[in-house]
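Sorry to interrupt, but I need a hand with the structure work. Could you add the entry underneath, on a fresh line?
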Amino acid sequence: MDEVQSGLLVGLRRARFTLSYAVLVSAVTAAMLRMDPAMHDALIRHASTNLHNLSRGRFGTLISSAFVVDAGPIYLWLPGLVCLLLVAELTLGGSRTALMFATGHVGATLLVAVGLVAAVKLEWLSASIARASDVGMSYGAMAVVGVLTAALPARWRAAWIGFWSAAAVVVVTGGGGFTDVGHVVALGLGMVVSTRFRAPARWTAPTAALLCVGSAFAFLMLADGLVGVIEGGAWGTAGALAAAGIERLRHGSHTNSSADEVIQSERQDCGGSPSSSPGASHS
């Protein structure tokens, strides 16, 4: 019993960020359920990281918006989010996961805001987009998906990158809204940051199961609809297979090149060098 309790405490300590964020989001969501519709809508308007709020210096929304989730019943999205954050925290560490979540949430929000300002000025989008609601944890979650690249075994990284890259291209070219673009931007930020991390993670059956559930949740969030799921899944699978094939060919070419060098070196050693070969002696 003591060993079980000790293991549970160690697990809780390793998952502090995930548990803390889940508790805070659950508390805010529970409070929102008790609000009348007018107060509920006012909270979302106040917490949104839209152009209207940011242009008025309400930069606190960059933090508050991550805890205000308007994505349907909490039991539909919180379990998947917890699995995603938990597998990142167990393989990469709590500080890295928290930093990447915050970087993805804030970074993608600001980059999307810059793009929206340009689109409005060029009259590609209506000025009404400035007041669109933009709250939730999706940008941070997608950044965590990207940075998980560093935690995967080397043989799976190419397929992982290929799948998410292809699925992201389908989302962007499919005419999605600015939040879909934000998801792709956050994913890209995570993948870029993953190149700076070195995480020789020891994968087990539980962490692999967490990865499956968490990545499935993230994919549904990225695809955003049945059509997106079908197209994103098909192209993502094709991208994964193509990337894995290219990586295997590259690895095979490198292996053959190394083998050729070893064979050539052995031949030289067997043949000897001019200075060491026996010659006629003259007295």
Notes: Confidence is low (pLDDT under 50) at residues 1-9, 272-283. DSSP finds twelve helices and no strands in the chain.
